[in-house]
Amino acid sequence: MISFKPVEPAEIDVLVALEQQATEYPWSRALFESCLQPDYSNYVLRQGQQVLGYYFAQQVLDEVTLFTITVAADQQGKGYGRSLLQHMIQQAKSAGCRQVWLEVRASNQPAINLYHSAGFQPAGVRKGYYQNAAGSEDAVVMQLLLTKSTTE
Ligand SMILES: CC(C)(COP(=O)(O)OP(=O)(O)OC[C@H]1O[C@@H](n2cnc3c(N)ncnc32)[C@H](O)[C@@H]1OP(=O)(O)O)[C@@H](O)C(=O)NCCC(=O)NCCS
C-alpha cells in the first residue's frame, strides 16, 4: 500500500541519502531545509516505512513551481515518478492554482519525457543555467496550464 505524506523535518536525513543515490546532481541538506516553509507543498511517497520518492513545490499566488521530484534509484521506472507528479498537480488544482512551472536540465530526457506526458509544454530556455562536468548546460523551462479538464 503506497501513501503520500507531507515531508517532516525529521526525515530530511533520509531524503538527502536517497537523493545522493538517485541523481547525478543531488540537492544539499541546506537546500532541502530551505524548502521547509509554509508556502511549500512537499510530499513523500512511502510504501510502509520505505521512502519511494518525493517532490518539493512552492505556491506563490495562483502559480506553483516544482523544484524537485525524485524517485529512489532502485524504484525508478515503476510509475512512481508519474504518481508523484500527478499528486503535485492535483494538490495545485485543489489549491486553486492556474499554472505549474519547472526547470529541467536539457540533458535530463527521462524527466522531460515525464513532464511532456503530463501535459507540460516548453516555455523557454535558460542558456548555461546549470553547472555540469563539461562546464554548463541549458535549463528547459516548462509550463502546465491547469484547467478543469487537466486530469493528470
Ligand atoms: C525523472 C524521474 C523522477 C522519473 O521517475 P520514474 O518513477 O523513474 O518514472 P516513471 O516510471 O513514473 O515513468 C514515467 C514516464 O517518465 C519517462 N521516463 C521515465 N524513465 C525514463 C527513462 N529512463 N528514459 C526515458 N523516459 C523515461 C517516460 O515518459 C515514462 O512514461 P512511460 O513509462 O509510459 O514511457 C526519475 O528518473 C528520477 O528520480 N530521476 C532523478 C532525479 C531527477 O532527475 N528528477 C527531475 C529533476 S527536474
Please supply descriptive tags for the structure shown above.
152 residues, alpha+beta, Aminopeptidase, 7-stranded mixed sheet, 27% helix, globular, binds coenzyme A
Helix/strand/pairing category:
alpha+beta
Q: Determine and state the CATH class.
A: Alpha Beta
Radius of gyration: 15 Å
Query: Percent range for helical residues?
Result: 25-40%
Count of spatially separate domains: 1
Q: Mean pLDDT, as a whole number?
A: 95
Q: And the CATH topology?
A: Aminopeptidase
Strand content: 35-45%
Order of helices and strands: EHHEEEHEHEE
CA-to-CA gap between the ends? 21 Å
Oligomer designation: single chain
Characterize the biggest β-sheet.
7 strands, mixed
Query: Uncertain spans, ≥5 residues at pLDDT below 50?
Result: none
Strand order across the biggest sheet? 1-2-3-4-5-7-6
CATH H-level name... which superfamily? Gcn5-related N-acetyltransferase (GNAT)
- Using DSSP, what is the number of strands? 7
Which hetero compounds are present in the coordinates?
A: coenzyme A
